[in-house]
Amino acid sequence: MTPSPQSQAPTTGPSWAEGVCRGMCDAGIRDVVYVPDNPLAHVLRELGDRYADVRLTLATREEEAFGIAAGLYLGGRKPAVMLQSSGVGNSLNALTSLLLPYQIPTVMIVSMRGDAGEWNSAQVPMGRALRAILDSLAIPHATVESADQACETVRAAAATAFATRLVGACLLPRRLTTAS
Amino acid sequence: MNRLDATRVIVRHAGDGLIVSSLGHPTYDLFAAGDRPRNFYTWGSMGLASSIALGLAIARPELRVVAIDGDGSLLMNLGSLATIGMLQPANLVVVVMDNEEYATTGGQRTPTAHGADLEAAGRAMGVRRTATVESESELAAAFDTERPDRRQARGSLLIVAKVAESAPTVKPPLDCVWIKNRFMNAMGPA
Fold it and tell me: How far apart are CA B78 and CA B75, in angstroms?
């Protein structure tokens, strides 16, 4: 696979976002389906600026994003889905009645809300429940603890997902994405 | 035209194209109309047939991809029309089997029985080619994207097929992984 990024322009975004992009690319991902979020905007900008061979597809809702990702996989691609933790709630039927029973893999990159540093109480219940929900579905999840671990954490989660044909998740906590 | 008749028209026109069917009666009728390895039968994920087909259409631009959706199912994921209107892959056809009822769950009436117009929704979301059809010949004509007068307006095609309910009598195999593997093997690598 062609090494990415193709552009040698210096990155201007946060290094965790750069690591997420490299991790996805190293795992062979060239399709990213997403519903945007503030921290994920850094990843989207980095992908758009420096990864010309990565196709970005906007979805109107997270459940739809998983449907599009399933089609991409069936067509021979390796898709990632990027979403906010609240959007995982919108995705449960797609996960439990399409991706999991058909063994259609993807890696979800989840920007966390509701964890340390949260200011909006409406984001808290889903954020706090997320790991238990993923555990109850036997969806493995890894948390990116620091910027220097972002690339390897994402790469390993994605590689495992596609090798085992099971959905995996990488969680990006606010302490990572909102650090100055 | 009942739904099984309409499904037979689609299978007849599908060639080596891919067909994704929405759960319940559309999936049962696709199996009855013509089981083929390039059929992807969904057994769940109500609303996502057009999204799965969109992902396939992006991934495999050399193949025609047909979603067989239901009116109740599409109403559950109406945002899909906006995404299709934005991306507009010319190899994507979404056929909505509009029987104006949730037939699989006992025939409760859907909003299309009260005037909701899914073709108008598609047009409003920018889907470039749309049609509402009420007979097999109209469906066949709408489905034929090779017609010269349609070549000018490349883009995704949304067909709302007004159909009568037809009680299915057979179902495809329940083994989801088998359905997926057969489908992917039939298509071969990209």
Answer: 5
List chain A domain ranges. Answer: 15-177
SS3 of B120-185: the string is HHHHHCCCCEEEEECCHHHHHHHHCCCCHHHHCCCCCEEEEEECECCCCCCCCCCCHHHHHHHHHH
Query: What pLDDT is recorded for position B148?
Result: 53
- CATH 3.40.50.300 for domain A15-177: no
Contacts of A101 in chain B (CB under 8 A): 43-44, 176-177
Which tens digit of pLDDT belongs to each residue from A114-128?
A: 998 899 999 999 999
Cβ within 8 Å, pair B45-A67: yes
CATH number for domain B3-187, candidates 3.30.300.10, 1.10.10.10, 3.40.50.970, 3.30.499.10 = 3.40.50.970
**A8 class by beta-carbon count within 10 Å (0-12 exposed, 13-18 middle, 19+ buried):** exposed
Give chain A's count of helices (H) and strands (E): 8, 6
Asked if A72 lies within 8 A of B55 by C-beta distance, the reply is yes
What ranges do the domains of chain B cover? 3-187
Task: Please name the residues in contact with A36: beta carbons below 8 A apart, sequence gap of 6 or more.
Answer: A44, A58
- The nearest CA of chain A is from the CA of B109 a distance in Å of 23
Tokens standing for residue B62? 């050399």
Query: Does the predicted model carry a pTM greater than 0.90?
Result: yes
CA distance A80 to A34: 8
- Best of B52, B69, B84 to disrupt the A interface (most A CBs within 10 Å) is B52
